[in-house]
Amino acid sequence: MAEVTTIARPYAEAVYRIAEQGGSLDKWSQMLEFAATVVSDPQMQVVIGNPRLTAEQQRTTFLAVCEKSLDAQGVNMVQLLLENGRLTLLPVIREQFELLRALHGGVMDTEIFSAYPLSDAEKEDVVRRLESKYKRKVEATITLDPELIGGIRIVAGDVVIDASVRGQLQNMAFTLKS
Question: Among 35, 110, 129, 130, which one is most buried in terms of CB atoms within 10 A?
Fold first, then answer.
């Protein structure tokens, strides 16, 4: 999966730059969402994966479905992806685009795993601390995970903060084995 992300990231970054310069982030978000949905459709998967169809036939078929939802730049992006055999990357490109949009928009999605339900005050305290640490607005999702035994585990982008009892027990076990 990391390889697919590595291949998709430059496309997402290029699209993000174009969208940002044109002031059309919302429009690109919608175009990418629609195109990614079309690529993921089982019937379109058959068309894209059919070795008997030429790239031109695939392009014509794909654009016939998408043409009303893509502008000229969106069509150019699809053609570029087809030429490079990367059309199936559209869902990952969309995901990477949305991550860039959130990152540059100053919003950070986090998931907080807790062994017990957090009160509103506790949630606000954790969010405030994360916002202070990362200098961004934090949107948190709370998930109950009784296996943590106690405490919380926070996943913020690539960062994992494990302040759970289970995590501390695992660290202790690792230290004792060393």
Answer: 35
